[in-house]
């Protein structure tokens, strides 16, 4: 029997709220299979369309940002129509809304960005002035820093739409998260992965985050057993950077943490929100990390460096109306 408001320890079924893009469904099905294998639960999916899925004609940074992809799913949790929401962690706002928690993070897929093209093997092979598709400010500023000659053009829509636009010849190459392509069996479209020193990923890229209601105590305990601790600590460091800087997707910000043994190395960079010709500011810090508090402290150390090395001036250029989603 299912109690729609609170799960009991004897619950054998649960409902996952998910967006209906192919990637979101793959991710929800992945979690469904995991819950079935680990706990023997039978899991339903509740597919939903979010505002972020409907608005396809404008860059996300112009229409209110990350929260657009998660709000409807939270309403389903609030109303008891679902118990769990599965998200690409990089789409999850840095501050969770009152009443909701990010309860766990699963093992991360490849965090890198991928170079996808029908004619060229890698960024260096692109001819002068080649047209590259991406709407991510983070990708734009890093592309322009390396190749100021490139003609970077907006590209929105789900993964299939973006690949179709490439195949129609609208771009010479596009940049996509490697994780999404790999999950959908589209790894063959990746001509090369951009290395971390040429394209630093977004905070949380490649990781899956599970969100529940704060008062869902029992499901919380079950979900916490699924946590991939190295990823959990790494994304806490990455998200601390983004949170401290306002968490806005109007800001070209990258943050990525990697493990060197017991040491977590956190790299981050900031660009100018309106002018990709302004030099990037980057910072790195590393420390032995075993707790989320230490991971967040590492994030704040990187933020202090970014700010003092010119990041403050870049942040001051952020239009205040769009500074928060
Ligand atoms: N912003 C959309 C989005 N959210 C998560 C992914 C890919 C998978 C991931 O990073 O986990 C993508 C597509 C992309 O950036 O190419």
From TrEMBL:
Residues that bear S-(dipyrrolylmethanemethyl)cysteine: 249
EC numbers: 2.5.1.61
Catalytic activity of the protein: 4 porphobilinogen + H2O = hydroxymethylbilane + 4 NH4(+)
Cofactor note (record): Binds 1 dipyrromethane group covalently.
Pathways involved: Porphyrin-containing compound metabolism; protoporphyrin-IX biosynthesis; coproporphyrinogen-III from 5-aminolevulinate: step 2/4
GO molecular function: hydroxymethylbilane synthase activity
Domain Porphobilinogen deaminase C-terminal: 232-306
Cofactor: dipyrromethane
Keywords: Porphyrin biosynthesis, Transferase
Record-level GO cellular component terms: cytoplasm
Top-level EC class as recorded in UniProt: transferase
UniProt domain Porphobilinogen deaminase N-terminal: residue ranges: 15-219
CDD domains: PBP2_EcHMBS_like
Biological process annotations from GO: protoporphyrinogen IX biosynthetic process
Function: Tetrapolymerization of the monopyrrole PBG into the hydroxymethylbilane pre-uroporphyrinogen in several discrete steps.
Subunit (UniProt): Monomer.
Family, as annotated: Belongs to the HMBS family.
Note: The porphobilinogen subunits are added to the dipyrromethane group.
Protein name per UniProt: Porphobilinogen deaminase
Organism for this UniProt entry: Leptothrix ochracea L12
């Amino acid at each position: 029997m299912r109690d729609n408001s609170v799960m009991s320890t004897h619950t054998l079924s649960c409902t996952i709220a998910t967006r209906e893009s192919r990637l979101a469904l793959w991710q929800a099905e992945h979690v469904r299979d995991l819950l079935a294998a680990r706990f023997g639960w039978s899991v339903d999916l509740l597919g939903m369309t979010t505002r972020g899925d409907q608005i396809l004609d404008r860059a996300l940074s112009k229409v209110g940002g990350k929260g657009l992809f998660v709000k409807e799913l939270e309403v389903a949790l609030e109303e008891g129509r679902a118990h769990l929401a599965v998200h690409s962690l990089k789409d999850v706002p840095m501050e969770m809304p009152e009443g909701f928690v990010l309860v766990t993070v699963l093992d991360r897929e490849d965090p890198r960005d991928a170079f996808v093209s029908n004619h060229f093997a890698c960024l260096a092979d692109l001819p002068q002035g080649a047209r590259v598709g991406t709407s991510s400010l983070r990708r734009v500023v890093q592309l322009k820093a390396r190749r100021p000659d490139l003609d970077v053009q907006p590209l929105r829509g789900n993964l299939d739409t973006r690949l179709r636009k490439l195949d129609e010849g609208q771009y010479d190459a596009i940049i996509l998260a490697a994780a999404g392509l790999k999950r959908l069996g589209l790894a063959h479209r990746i001509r090369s992965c951009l290395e971390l020193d040429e394209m630093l990923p977004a905070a949380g890229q490649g990781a899956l985050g599970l969100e529940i209601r704060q008062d869902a105590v029992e499901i919380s305990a079950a979900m916490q057993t699924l946590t991939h601790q190295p990823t959990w600590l790494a994304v806490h460091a990455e998200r601390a950077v983004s949170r401290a800087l306002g968490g806005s997707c109007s800001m070209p910000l990258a943050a990525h943490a990697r493990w060197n043994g017991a040491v977590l190395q956190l790299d981050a960079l900031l660009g100018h929100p309106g002018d990709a010709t302004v030099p990037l500011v980057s910072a790195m810090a590393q420390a032995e990390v075993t707790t989320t508090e230490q991971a967040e402290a590492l994030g704040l150390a990187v933020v202090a460096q970014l700010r003092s090395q010119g990041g403050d001036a870049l942040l001051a250029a952020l239009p205040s109306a769009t500074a928060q989603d």
